[in-house]
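ingest -> validate -> predict -> emit
validate: passed (alphabet ok, no gaps, 1389 aa)
predict: started
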Amino acid sequence: MSDDGIDFYDSRPDREEDEENSEEEGEPTYGNQVSDEDEEEEDDDEEEARKVAEGFIVDDEDEEEHDSDGSQKVARRRKRKKIEDYDEELDEEDLDLLEENTGLKLSREPKLKRLKRGRQEETDDQDAAAEKFFSDEEQYEEAQEEQQVEEDHYAPQYRHRQVYDDMDDFIAEEDDEEGVEDDRADLYNREVPRRGRASKDMMDILPEGLSEDVLADMYDIFGDGTDYDWALYDEEPAEYAEERAEPQLADVFEPSELKARMLTEEDEEVRMRDIPERLQVRYAGTRKTFDIPPNEDEIQAEATWVARELSNSKGIDQPTEAFQNAVKHVVSFMAREYLEVPYIFDHRRDYFTEVDSAGVTTELLTHDDLWKIYDLDFKYNSFANRKTALREFLSKCDIYDEYTNNLIDKAEKIEELNDIADYVNLKFADNVNSLQKQTKGPKRPANRSLYEMSLRNKVADFLPRFGITAAQYGANYLENSRRYYPEDALVSPEEEAAGFVSSSFSDPGRVLRAARMVLSQDIAHEPEVRKAMRRDWEARAVISVKPTDKGFDQIDDLHPMHPYKYLHEKPISTFKNGEYLLISKGESEGLLTVHVNIANYTGWFNQISEYYMSDGYSDSAQQWNQQRQEVLQMTLSEHLIPLMEKYIREKLRIEAQEAIYYASYQSLMSKVNVGPFRGPDADRYKNGIPRVITISSGNGDRGDPIVAVFLNHRGRLADRLEVPSLRDEKWSKQMLEFISSKRPNVIGVAGFTAQTRLVYKSVQLLVNDINKSDSNLPTIDLLAVDDEAARLYKNSRRARDEFYELSEVTRYCISLARRLQCPVLEYTGLERDLLALRHHEFQNLVPEDTLLVRLERALINVVNDMGVDINAASTSPYLATALKYVCGLGPRKAQSILKKMDARGELESRSALVTRGLTPATTFMNCASYLRIRNVDDADILDDTRIHPQEYDLARKMAGDALEIDEDEMDDYETKVMIVRRVVKEYPNKLNDLILDDYAVVLKTQYNAPKRQILEHIKLELQGPYHDRRQRYARPTMDETFRMVTGETRDTLREGFIIPVKITSLRGKTATCQLDSGVDGYIYIDQVSDDRVMNVGEVLEFGSTINAKVVGIDREKFALTLTCKPSNTKPNSDLSLRRKQNDDYYDLQEEAREIERRRAMRKKRTKTQRVINHPLFQQFNYMEAEEYLSSRQRGDLVIRPSSRGPDHIAITWKVDEGVFQHIDVVEIRKDSSVFAPVQYKIGEHVFDDLDQLIVTYVEAIAAKAEELIAHPKYRPGGPSALKSHLSSLTMANPRLSAYGFCLSDRPGYFELGFKLNSKAPSVHWAIKLLPDGYRLRDTSYPVVGDLINGFKRIQANEAQQRRPRHHGHSGHGVHGGHGYHHGQRPPRH
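emit:
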């Protein structure tokens, strides 16, 4: 069998095949089965429902209903008319969640009652959700009696009822019984005949063969533009508004839960709007609207912009006309028709391909190019919105400047618009400030700078003497020409400036300085100067990197940042793989310093200066040129270089992110764009899917069973087996029989650890025996399976929902088997767990949300290439995970479609997507060709091809021509379907006889659109419907198998590496050992020691861990050969192998100079090191001392050398976590002799030896600190925490005065903070620690109690002193000051 027509996971047996035996049918790995008993119950329900509908069965509730008050029934009935469309109602899962969260048991209305109330296909769960709000049982029962499903008074619900008009005479509605009418509903229904037939646009999309009634129903679904005419009629009666509002989901669920379940109003809006979901989500929060598509001029402007950006990314300076036209068509498809990339790539290929005279087709745009255009479309919208906003801002400011408007017209980038905004703020500051005075909100600081002051003086008149304006210089620079020349003055700048002296600028020097400042700002804000400078920096900017002191120590040879530790002028164009983000991270962590500059700065400066200089040679001309040069230097240093540095950094960041996104996308694409495993006998696979057994031992620990599962060609779990071990012959035989009886096409093996290698070896022996036993049967393949998706699946909620009764390892094996049958489906259900997989070494440096969007594109590509069986997906949660990646859909729209299908049954054709109201027009256009209708009786075979319904007529015409059948003979729909089926099944090769080129010419004339590629597409699909375009499943290489089984890669394990190993056995001349990963290694006697030994046990010890060097790796046997000779295992001898290769611009000379400089510093420091004979002395600097004490107790200390000189030492002691005090100690000697007795002085305190100093000073201070920390009023966390604590206390009791203690930011000090009342500010006083107490306000206190009393006295005295000043007499308290209210007590201890 060829790759054509590969099937996967069919939920129903193939009607053209015989039934498989019951042993192999097994249980499905997805979906639900309906038993015979369930079918009988459904028959009973239908019979009961019929009787209810005919009036034979009357519930007690109905009898009570007639006894109730009529007016109350009418009010309640009208109240239920407010229920939203049934698509928005709560389903069973929502009710289950309601019960779980509220603790109430909600009643479900039986199906009988639903049939009696009306032919509604979904339960009115919204009323059921509301029932929990009734407070008493009687009211609840009354609500149950009155519960009914009626049509909403809004138009969409009445349109829905038209589909079931033929049931109106059969089902009696309670509205008719009670004589209650909805006037607005009647009015809408009277308008139905005037709404006409289906529009031409919709008829062009759908295939022929649909009845007029079906088309009319479609028209009712999509409307005729009068959908909201009901809004023109009177509002509902006031009595409706007075009634209690129905409970909403937001009243029951947390917002986060609603968002996670996609039940918010925004989610519903996305579901209902006929725009692809991904487009809506992408533009959420922007000014983008989908109501009015862009006009031709807007499309042309965007296409020009996109073509330029796309060609620049490809390195093309000037795009061709054909390229620009192709881009324009694609932009139009996206922006005007709202078509997504998969649809455009498959069904609009004629617009971005060209065929030469030889008939060779060339792609002007690749699949990846379409995704780039998709991204550029979004960027252009941001750019266009910014341009519009800027124009609106100018209009509001009454700025009508032709030069500015021309700049906006010519702007091509967001940066250029920002330049214009800065230019406007500088040049039209008065207008901007005037607008701000008229508007509310945050104000921009008024421009009262030196620039403005200079322009309001004579300096403004002096500026033209420089001979060239900023705009003229910008034009010269941008065009790289000398269109404008400065006119030379006849006198020197100083002489000229003397005539413009004023009171503000009193001498010529100040006038010149002011003029240079003004001109530098003018040039710096000139948009064309900035544009030209960005051009230069993009081409010539370079990056230099050096480590900080912290980075020099931390970035060792194996650090990931080491290749970039020293970079010298690396051009920005050489950053390719996202490495700039790693450098930027190092800079943010304080490990690296990054400098952005321009190569050959001097030469570049001289070049750009030429556009501002005069060609004169006179002394005055040269003096003016000197002034102009100073202007440019000031412009660059103060304005443009910082701006360019910021721009280059941002450019590199964006490009690095894009590189990582694209590499990650390609990595995932290589995994999912793979078909099922295909062995030598793949042509005999049923449906193209292999029968698979997967085997795993999980962790492989002792006692862990070995699990095997068998999935048949339909993806069903047909059988499974667990055995304790394969080492025992009994269990090995049982596994052999299991494999033999299932005759799988392939066996996959994987596991959590390297112990999997043992299982792999055992299974390999079994497979070899089976293959040898019967040479007539196809051989069974054995391979290792990549388990990255299975590891995430085995414990996921999806796995528990599908196979709750199975073990973790069994679910793991099922996922492995599915990986061999259809790899992409193992990734479609991962959602955000895709981010847990490794795609790129720097993926953790980019925003996760954007990375997820890019990764999902790989799934979108493959899922649409493969197609989704919509009917199978509606019954299989496993297959349904792919539906959200279908073109035009998304998680919300897919959820909506599945919910509707659950109520309305399977689809018999693609057109049913529209006729049943599952998808509106634009969504249908995008998704139709990717939703497959399979195994449905009398289905059109075209519904299981990639041919779009709008091309069905062409396909039928081609089929008829291939069989040479005249059009007159294909006059009815059934005949056309039969002819197409005949061509597909019997005569596909006859399509090769068609001359498609001639036919394409006719079609282009007829439709005024190219169709050549579409004809080729149709031909290929008719010859092999949904032929598999994915890459073939490649057998893992030996390296890949080794990695999958052991987890070791060439980066972690290779020849020459020195690794730790554990000795597991000693047998004469061989030692067996094991790596951390579980891989076995062998050390032979000649590799044990440099000396001659007779037994490995003489050198090695059982159970010990040693360092060994890898001599060889047998990847087939998963074993290593090692050596532990001391000569081979010297420390760091494998550093050259492990170290990553340095960057091409790595500055080895600078690194050597820095190493030498630091070595010299250490040598110098070593010479001057002091040695003090004391047990607490350490050769530390202050940082080393703090690090040493960080893990020790409060009060611990070290004595260390001081940086203040040879007659100083320092004592560092730990005050608290993260707080250390460094005490300077001066050594006092009576004479210069080194043997003279030494005394130690701290401030005024003198000590005879260090022990006395430590006990009577340092430890005494530490004791006082401990006393204060132990006090109840002490608050950890510093001043901010104490301030917050005091505010909380006073807010709780506004008249309360509160105080407390905390550590100060100054080591050796505490702070006493207090707050007199809730309105008073928090005040903090410093407390200095003394050996014998505390000092507050120049007063010492021996204990904490005295300190508190002293504080109260000081505060009370200050309060008394303030009262007369504030109130004129002392009889009143202070309001809002630092005193107390009258009668209020001072802070208490």
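The chain has a mean pLDDT of 79.
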